[in-house]
Amino acid sequence: xxxxxxxxxxxxxxxxxxxxxxxxxxxxxxxxxxxxxxxxxxxxxxxxxxxxxxxxxxxxxxxxxxxxxxxxxxxxxxxxxxxxxxxxxxxxxxxxxxxxxxxxxxxxxxxxxxxxxxxxxxxxxxxxxxxxxxxxxxxxxxxxxxxxxxxxxxxxxxxxxxxxxxxxxxxxxxxxxxxxxxxxxxxxxxxxxxxxxxxxxxxxxxxxxxxxxxxxxxxxxxxxxxxxxxxxxxxxxxxxxxxxxxxxxxxxxxxxxxxxxxxxxxxxxxxxxxxxxxxxxxxxxxxxxxxxxxxxxxxxxxxxxxxxxxxxxxxxxxxxxxxxxxxxxxxxxxxxxxxxxxxxxxxxxxxxxxxxxxxxxxxxxxxxxxxxxxxxxxxxxxxxxxxxxxxxxxxxxxxxxxxxxxxxxxxxxxxxxxxxxxxxxxxxxxxxxxxxxxxxxxxxxxxxxxxxxxxxx
Length: 457
What we know:
It is built from twelve helices and 15 strands. The protein is α/β, with parallel strands linked by helices.
């Protein structure tokens, strides 16, 4: 049976930065597509009124979206605003009144996890949780223990099928393209295993610093910010088995299964780095040991992937901004033509940003009498970035009750279990100059392979 669509959209944190940069543009885009025509209630505690919220929304869309006066008029006509302290019952009483006849609202908690319990309790006491859905932003905790505690709070009033844990990376078109490419091309499956794949690398490079978010980064660091969530999810999309059916639950089953098979990290499997100048950023401690770069080596304890190393690195102040997956195939068992050929001659490159690229690396003969070759990369496809923003896609799915692109608790716990042993200062942090590929110590993780594979441009 198809899930019942939500008949109202409530977002807490309506006056915050996330709403300004992402939520308002996404909501107007849904209105423009005809996918959103229900009351939209913003809740905040800034002493605002509806008029100020509408002007904030207008400024947001002009800066971060595509402003259209006619579409914005439709969007703003749906907007309402409730102001008040989340600790006071009267705030939720006013919210209940603003919802009017809505009987299946979606509550989006664009607020810190520290106030989840207060808000969910207020919703429950006001009678706003029956038949409702809740969307929560990452981070889903700070470690495995806190993730489980957060889950217990959510389950006090919401069943699992009504909880939408949003990771915007899963809404990106290139990430979905990984799944589509893998399971729509039968020729890949016979070679998608330890017999033919030597290693796999994922690089998420950013050529900018923390951009004034030093205080946030002090609480997160690269492991919590992108590896535990975004990049482990990308890895699961690359190496999971095919789902048994097209239902969202089947896709999430396979992702969870492969994530649970990833061996937890240890001190020998990680290198942390910090770019020169990070400690002078606003909000950063002068003796900070928080990583702005992390590189890890992972193994998956399954028949398909036993003994294949998976390398992931992510960092700020690197030479380029790009996210790539490179699958390195094994060389033939015997080099017939006597060449000393690097193993990277044969590979599949999946670029996720800034554009979408699928490239196939091969070795081909150069012209002439000699049986000698050169490495080439065949460009299978090159596409521009997302036509639909991740938040537009994910919020639309949540309103329809489609859980396919949202994290499930068992998978989130499996991701935390991978990184839990190396959180904090369990390993040294090494300096690296801005504009480089991170600390030189990271090279030890790929010893025996061909080194780190830098994104191509």
